[in-house]
Design goal:
Layout lengths: L3 E4 L5 H7 L4 E4 L2 E8 L11 H18 L7 E8 L2 H15 L7 E6 L8 E8 L8
Parallel strand pairs: 4-5
Antiparallel strand pairs: 1-2, 2-3, 3-6, 4-6
Helix pairs in contact: 2-3
């Protein structure tokens, strides 16, 4: 059986405990990151859509870092949008500032009607660099 290891970003562990889930699970050399929203440390949404997107990416980066990963380790991305037609330009602006070189990760965008008070969520699968894998 493959070992699973819970990964939590620094300073946000209590929020995950309150809601009963793990920020990410490392299994072998793969990292499965739960959906990250644009929440500040207290759990409240960042003000404005683009700020939520930037904060969601910042929260994702903190989770990746906790597992020894970075942007280049991401293989697959899924994003959730409450108004994709009107939000896509802002999301692409932030995304394009982070993923600047090929090959880009796979990407699936999904329109949804509810994200618990948020308007954007991002989840990823990443490969953990060789030196960081759990035996």
């Amino acid at each position: 059986m493959t070992q699973r290891e819970a990964i939590f970003p620094e300073g946000r562990h209590a929020l995950y405990d309150i809601h009963g889930y793990t920020a990410a699970i490392r299994s072998g050399d793969l990292l499965f990151v739960s959906g990250q929203v644009g929440s500040r440390e207290d759990g409240s949404p960042a003000a404005g859509f683009e700020a939520q997107v930037r904060q969601a990416f910042a929260n994702l980066q903190a989770t990746l870092k906790a597992a020894g990963c970075g942007w280049d380790d991401i293989i697959d991305v899924t994003t959730f949008h409450t108004d994709p037609e009107n939000q896509l330009a802002a999301v692409l602006k932030v995304k394009d500032s982070i993923f600047t070189s090929k090959p880009y990760p796979n990407w699936t965008a999904v329109g949804v009607t509810w994200l618990a008070g948020f308007d954007f969520e991002i989840k990823v699968i990443a490969r953990v660099p060789q030196a960081q894998t759990v035996s």
